[in-house]
Amino acid sequence: MLDRKVKEIKEIITDHFKLKFRDDSTEDIQPFDGQPRPLLNCITQKEVRDSINKLNNGRAPGTYNICNQYIKYAPPMLDKQIAQILNKTFESHEPLRISDGLLVTLPKPGKAKGPPSNLRPTTLLTSLRKILSTIELSCIRPKIEVYLPTSQSRFRPNRSTSDVIWAHRWLTAKVQKDANLEINVTGIDTSAAFDTINRKELLTILKEIVEENELHIIQFLLSETTLDVKVYPRNSLYHQHRNTTRGQSKPRSFHNLFVICSKRYQECAEQLTAASSLYAL
């Protein structure tokens, strides 16, 4: 009886998040393009070690049940082997299943128990994917930072929501000081923003910003991603090719880039600017 109940819960949660994280009208991204060839700048052992050192201890393991500590405190020989594995993957187009994630759900605080919409999804990724993602992020971050406007605070180093709060407080203080001044502040709710990224469009945007070597790695990371919904001892696998999902640091940075470049965002920004000009003094 318990086994049947667990199975039903698993199916309900899987169907709910499958609608959010998968779009059948979107074309799948292939991990490689063209003929097999080595990376222009191969991944070095030092890059692997620097990335491993950034892994946090005590985090739940991903699909392969390998904790970060096992890799972080392993002999230096492991760094060399990981670099060789990653380089060989791109050199020979050999498949490397590092994009399989475990999706676990946590109840949202203050929400009623039961509806799957009141569950917060969290993705547990493999350590090897985290290593490759961190290496790539270190390479492309300076280029993306230059591309993004200074007004963008989310998912950026040394920036946070505090920037937006202080800007709002400064505007409020300015109005309080001048009785004849009126300022209208308009905000955009980006809830579920992780669910709206089109990976094909994202790669098109990145072609104008990053180098070919970096684009190959990004395409590999965005391809063949799967989420394995875990409920008690049971899993339910489905392919994901729509969003970036919480827990993936590099795609969070891509979210900034995608939003800034999205045509829908540009149209919305123009409408908000026009509306603000009518009311702001």
From TrEMBL:
Signal peptide: none
Keywords of this entry: Nucleotidyltransferase, RNA-directed DNA polymerase, Transferase
Source superkingdom: Eukaryota
Annotated organism of origin: Elysia marginata
Boundaries of every Reverse transcriptase domain copy: 107-228
Presence of the UniProt keyword Cytoplasm in the record: no
The keyword Endoplasmic reticulum appears for this protein: no
PANTHER family: ENDO/EXONUCLEASE/PHOSPHATASE DOMAIN-CONTAINING PROTEIN, ENDONUCLEASE_EXONUCLEASE_PHOSPHATASE DOMAIN-CONTAINING PROTEIN
Protein name: RNA-directed DNA polymerase from mobile element jockey-like
One Gene Ontology term of the molecular function aspect: RNA-directed DNA polymerase activity
